[in-house]
Write a structure and sequence with these properties.
397 residues; Glycerate kinase, domain 2; 2 domains; 5-stranded parallel β-sheet; 18 helices; 9 strands; elongated; Glyc_kinase_flavodox-like_fold; Glycerate_kinase
Length: 397
């Protein structure tokens, strides 16, 4: 019997350990307990990522030879977020969510990308965290990244306002932007990919500013930043609109040969995932990058489809099944692939806020609750082996 154990990306970070490490530890504990309970089972684990902290390490771990000349290079916004939080505190004397949203700058991401372009990597993947939080300390639509990238590449024309955060973008126009054609050309020889979790756009009810309210940003701030990000998107659309398109504009529904600059701006702002990394997704899309779900990026690297097809059972281990996990998490992504190969999916979780109708609709065959969402219980409790063994025996073939 072939069993594949896949941890959710929702396992929270603990002191000294990012969520990816916690997820790995949980998956290994479950796999060991399962193998002991069912000795004839071949139990393996595979790690996925949603683009948050640990994305680069997880993705790199699936490469046959990460050190090979020209191998894909993986970056993540999480690696520079903490430093930017400290920088905002130095500038404002505060570090609250409103301060990060207004004054945080994505410039460090531009520095990372510029350094990546100096390597021989043919593919550069940027793991973009949420709109704001532990993995993102800005909401500037990628303006700071654009300015930093332009400076590092020697492309003139970037206004200092681009580095000052979303609060400084009111009234920004095309004349404040660097030469986007030159930047697009600098990226054109590489396959630049934004790996993101959700499908938030830059603007609107499902956009970046709207998402800030989930991170304790006040209503007045979110409304002001929505207007500023709208100004930024129009400036990008109007700055040599015909030059902004990469290979396929990420599949955006726009004919760039006939579209007006404003139409192009709306299409770019409406790109699913544009809000990723505080708007880094939007700006990289404007420079020709592709935007993909991080889970799909890592799944391809891990040959997940082939591994699921070769399995008799897939077990997803999550702290809880909630709305985020059902719609954007590992569970639906895995269940979709498993359904194609008629492989059952079981969820082993701490608790579930979703009913049978919700989880069965995405292709999950069974949900087993332990009553414990704390990672410490999953990785150190003697009770884990007993609980896992009980579940494992119900799936013996």
């Amino acid at each position: 019997m072939q069993v594949l154990v896949i941890p959710s990306t929702a396992w929270p970070s603990t002191a000294g350990a990012p969520g990816a490490h916690v997820a790995d530890a949980v998956a290994r504990q479950v796999a060991t307990a399962w193998a002991r309970a069912v000795p004839h089972a071949d139990v393996q684990t595979v790690l996925l990522s949603d683009g948050s902290a640990g994305f680069a390490e997880t993705a790199r771990g699936h490469l046959a030879d990460p050190a090979a000349d020209g191998a894909a290079l993986f970056l993540e916004t999480a690696s520079v977020a903490a430093a930017e939080v400290a920088a905002v505190r130095d500038r404002t004397g505060e570090g609250a969510a409103d301060d990060l949203a207004e004054h945080g700058s994505s410039a460090p991401v531009g520095e990372l990308l510029a350094a990546a372009l100096e390597t021989r990597a043919r593919t550069i993947v940027v793991g973009a965290g949420d709109v704001l939080g532990a993995d993102t300390a800005w909401a500037d639509g990628g303006a700071g990244m654009l300015a930093a990238l332009a400076e590092r590449l020697g492309v003139p024309g970037a206004s200092d306002r681009l580095r000052q955060g979303a609060g400084a973008l009111a009234g920004i126009d095309a004349h404040d932007l660097p030469d986007l054609l030159a930047l697009r050309d600098a990226l054109a020889g590489r396959d630049v990919v934004v790996a993101q979790r959700g499908d938030r756009t830059l603007l609107g009810l499902g956009g970046l500013a709207a998402g800030l309210s989930q991170h304790a940003v006040g209503a007045a701030t979110t409304q002001r930043l929505e207007r500023n990000l709208g100004d930024l998107s129009l400036a990008v659309g109007r700055a040599r609109s015909g030059s902004l398109v990469g290979r396929d504009l990420l599949g955006a529904p726009v004919d760039v040969a006939t579209s007006s600059p404003d139409h192009l701006a709306r299409a770019l702002a409406a790109t699913p995932g544009a809000a990723a990394g505080g708007g880094v997704g939007f700006m990289l899309a404007a420079l020709g990058a592709r935007v993909r779900r991080a889970i799909d990026v890592v799944a391809d690297l891990a040959h997940l489809r082939e591994r699921i097809a070769a399995s008799d059972l897939v077990v997803v281990v999550a702290p809880a099944i909630d709305a985020a996990e059902v719609h954007d998490g590992v569970l639906p992504a895995v269940a979709e692939v498993a359904l194609d190969h008629a492989v059952p999916v079981a969820a082993l979780v701490g608790g579930s806020e979703a009913g049978r109708r919700e989880w069965s609709a995405i292709g999950v065959a069974g949900v087993h609750e332990t009553g414990h969402a704390d990672a410490a219980w999953w990785t150190s409790s003697d009770e884990v082996a007993e609980r896992v063994a009980r579940v494992a025996r119900t799936w013996v073939l």
